């Protein structure tokens, strides 16, 4: 049943914590060095760009929207993964200028692309917990929308469930404020956190993204299959749109679609693409605009 499947999901989330016994000094030093380079890099943002990963209709293969993902190509270090520098940037507040840069750049690039192709396009942008906890987040987003002329209903903000559960009342208030601005709200990496279904109902969400951890073995692991089915049942009863993350094979695609998942994202369709490659992908996939 749904509750025991969700319980398994949580257990699985918990099992992903790894315990290291690192040489703390070396680790701390390495982090400080990355932080120093990061501070330098955000003076100009020259070393950053955004890649866009298509979000696709599982039935037709048509692109419906895309997720913006930041890339840092450091002169010193080469390509640094966001999983490495975003958590660091969160701890020292550098995420605030970085997050605003992502919002502004993605809105500008997608607006320009929408105008060229004359099709309104929706983009999803990740918010970090630090950004979300800033009281002025709505003003920051409004500023970006004003400066870029981007339509709020073309913007979807991705927030993780752990973030929402940390401070429920504050989170609810913020979500309602954002919603009132006309933007869409997605819950990212769903299944890895600790949300209770009761709480989830209270959030003004539009979209739920199933974490790729549950998609990976969904066709072979009955527990994962049960979790995914339970998430889909619950999401549909709440009227949420669902995106399966990490779709890498046709089997993933077909399985999720058979269980009622409409949308997916993953290497099976496309890796995250630079804006010029993304334009080509969109042309090929006969993108028809948001419904
Ligand atoms: P996320 O938001 O869950 O993004 C999805 C991640 O899964 C991306 O990793 C994407 O490249 C990867 N992915 C997509 N399809 C597949 C697939 O089929 N198989 C596998 N194995 N992976 C797939 P990426 O770009 O390295 O980003 C990692 C995380 O870093 C993101 O997870 C997000 O939490 C964070 N992040 C990325 N860009 C930003 C940003 O601009 N702002 C913030 N706050 N966080 C970001
Ligand atoms: Mg995301
Ligand atoms: Mg995700
Ligand atoms: Mg993630």
TrEMBL record:
Signal sequence interval, chain numbering: none
Domain EAL, chain residue ranges per copy: 31-286
Identification of the protein by name: Diguanylate cyclase
């Amino acid at each position: 049943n749904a509750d025991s499947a969700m319980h398994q999901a949580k257990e699985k989330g918990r099992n992903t914590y790894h315990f290291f016994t690192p040489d703390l000094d070396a680790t701390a030093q390495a982090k400080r060095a990355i932080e120093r380079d990061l501070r330098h890099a955000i003076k100009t943002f020259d070393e950053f760009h955004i890649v866009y990963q298509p979000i696709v209709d599982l039935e037709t293969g048509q692109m419906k929207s895309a997720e913006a993902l930041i890339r840092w190509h450091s002169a010193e270090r080469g390509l640094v993964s966001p999983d490495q520098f975003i958590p660091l940037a969160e701890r020292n507040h550098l995420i605030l200028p970085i997050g605003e840069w992502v919002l502004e750049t993605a809105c500008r690039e997608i607006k320009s692309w929408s105008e060229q192709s004359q099709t309104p396009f929706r983009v999803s942008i990740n918010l970090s917990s630090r950004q979300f906890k800033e009281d002025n987040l709505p003003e920051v987003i409004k500023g970006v929308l004003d400066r870029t002329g981007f339509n709020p209903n073309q913007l979807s903000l991705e927030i993780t469930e752990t973030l929402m559960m940390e401070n429920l009342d504050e989170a609810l208030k913020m979500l309602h404020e954002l919603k009132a601005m006309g933007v869409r709200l997605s819950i990212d990496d769903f299944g890895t956190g600790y949300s209770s279904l009761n709480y989830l109902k209270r959030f003004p969400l539009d979209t739920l993204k199933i974490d790729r951890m549950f998609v990976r073995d969904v066709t072979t692991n009955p527990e994962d299959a049960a979790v995914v089915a339970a998430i889909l049942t619950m999401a549909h009863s709440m009227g949420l749109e669902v995106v399966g993350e990490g779709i890498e094979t046709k089997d993933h695609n077909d399985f999720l679609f058979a269980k009622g998942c409409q949308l997916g994202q993953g290497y099976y369709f496309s890796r995250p693409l630079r804006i010029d490659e993304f334009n080509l992908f969109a042309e090929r996939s006969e993108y028809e605009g948001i419904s």
